[in-house]
Amino acid sequence: MRYASKYRAWKAWLSTACVLIVVQVLLVIFDRIGWSPNLRDDNSLLMRIRDSVMESTWFNDFFHFHTSDIFNFITLLSVVIIVLQTIFLLFSNVFKRD
After folding, report:
1. Taking the CA atoms of the chain, what radius of gyration do you get in angstroms?
2. Which of 6, 11, 38, 71 ranks highest by number of CB atoms within 10 Å?
3. What is d(CA 79, CA 64) in angstroms, rounded to the nearest whole number?
4. Distances in Å between the alpha carbon of 16 and those of 9, 41, 78?
């Protein structure tokens, strides 16, 4: 039973990593052909977070993979999600009771 739950957790992590790779391939394709979404400038929480992150100097200096800022933001969110999932998976395996 423990093997099945550990296998399921790693399978979920692997599927998230595969989705990240597919999203990055799509973003590279969209970036190369010049397509970028036309975003509304509303006052929602997600748009305020996006604006504050994209206007910061560390984001523009160190996290510049694509020419479009929104693609860089999507990449940043994807990396944060997979890092958090990896940390959670490692801690759950280390501190799991037998």
Report:
1. 17
2. 71
3. 13
4. 11, 30, 9
* Angle, CA 64 vertex, CA 63 and CA 68 arms, to 5°: 125
Give the separation between CA 88 and CA 43, rounded to whole angstroms.
32
pLDDT tens per residue, range 28-72: 899 888 887 776 667 777 777 777 877 777 776 777 788 877 888
Query: Other C-beta atoms within 10 Å of 19: how many?
Result: 13
Which one, of 39, 42, 43, 29, lies nearest residue 73 by Cα?
39
Q: Which two tokens stand for residue 29?
A: 């394709």
Q: Is 69:54 a contact under the CB 8 Å cutoff?
A: yes
Full-model pTM: 0.70
